[in-house]
Each structure stands twice: as structure tokens, then as C-alpha cells.
Amino acid sequence: MTPSEDRQQQAAISRLLLYYLNGPLAEGCQLRGVLPAHGAVRIAVHAGESEGGDTFLYEIPYDTVAPADIPGILRTVLSGTQLYSSDDIGEALGMTLIRLRPQQISPTPEPEQGQALNALRALSDPGDDDNPLLIGFLMKGNGLMRLYVRRPGHLSLIGVDIRLTGALTALTASIPSLIEEEGRHRPAPDDPHCDSFVDLTDW
In which domain of life is the source organism classified (predicted)? Predict the structure, then answer.
């Protein structure tokens, strides 16, 4: 990996972890920072009360793991007792540094709210405020979410039900073309917030 590719990977991971600043990574654990390292990213996590507790620096090499798996690896590490070799423990900036071996850690799946946020961020293009696709959403429970979207050049709204599991990235990328297929549209008499309805829960 070239130095430029290394920085691009680190920037992508920083963007991915930004929204964890608003909530815990795991119970009692808050994101405090994302620091660059050669061939790896170091993630500062504060465990315990804000005034007390300790801050740890988890180093994750990204040559063996996809950036999207990093939050799940952190959730696994932070939600249970872990044993580390003394070779994997160090110190940096006054924090305990723990070098993780991601190939040995099964990522904990994203909670429903996190999956919803990922889908909504993918559909919200801030550069397209004049002709937005995503107008609203409703979490329906049981892993379901209704999106309120509109097609370019149309004022009518379409309610689109999706499941927050499976190939969510592929689905959200396909929604603009799927809602163009008139054969998918159904009346929506029970929802006053949309003009028609498209069911993509089995997509």
C-alpha cells in the first residue's frame, strides 16, 4: 500500500466512525478519537464514567479487514473480556495501546439503529438539495424501515419498505432505479405520508 493509499484508507475509517461520537460504541464506551498509524488505524475509546475510567487505544491493521468491519470488531472487543499477549500491549500519548488481530475476531453485527443510519446516509446526498431523493423515514421495528423518497422531476412521494439486514449497501444503491419501475408501485391507503408504496423487504 502506497503512503497515499494508506492516508485514503485512514480517512475512510475516520469518516465511518464519525457518527459514533454521538453515542456509545458499546455500553459504557465512548469514541474519543481516530489516530493514523502506518498500515493501521488507532481508535481511542474511553471506558467508564466521563470523569473517571480509562482511555484505551485500539490498533487495527486494515490490510486484513474491510473498513466496514471495524465498528463490529470494536463492539466485540468492548462487550466482553479479552485476553492479550504482552507483545500486543504498549503505550502511546498516555493511553494503553492494544494491538488487535482482526482476523481472530468475529465482528458483532451493527444494531438496528446503526444499520438504519448507514442506509439513510447512503441515500442522503447533501450535494443534491434541489432534487433530494430521501425526504423522510420511519423505523418500523423488527428490522424494517420505511423510506419516503421521490423520483427526480416528480413531486409525489413513494413509501419504500426495506429490511435492515442482508445486502443493504447494494439495496440502497439500487433504490433510485427500483422506484422507477412502475410495476413495483402499489397504492398506500394506510399511509397518508406517501402517494404510493414499494415493498423491497424481499429484495
Answer: Bacteria
d(CA 10, CA 202): 35
Q: Are residues 177 and 153 in the same domain?
A: yes
Sign of the CA dihedral running 33, 166, 63, 81: positive
Indicate if 171 and 84 belong to the same structural domain: no
Structural domain for 55, as ranges: 3-104
Q: Where are the alpha helices (DSSP H) in the chain?
A: 3-17, 70-78, 112-123, 168-178
Helices (H), ranges, 18-53? none
pLDDT recorded at residue 57: 95
Question: Are 123 and 94 a contacting pair, CB within 8 Å?
Answer: no
Domain total in the chain: 2
Examine the domain organization and report whether 151 and 72 are in the same domain. Answer: no
Please name which of 52, 80, 164 lies closest in space to residue 119, comparing C-alpha atoms: 164
Whole-angstrom Cα distance, residue 159 to residue 133? 12
CA distances from 112 to 8, 85, 118, 160 (A): 28, 33, 10, 17
The DSSP symbol for 51 reads: S
Kindly list the averaged pLDDT for each block of 10 residues, start to end, along the chain of length 203. 79 84 83 89 87 89 84 90 88 93 86 80 67 86 90 88 83 90 93 94 89
Rounded Cα–Cα distance for residues 163 and 20 (Å): 22
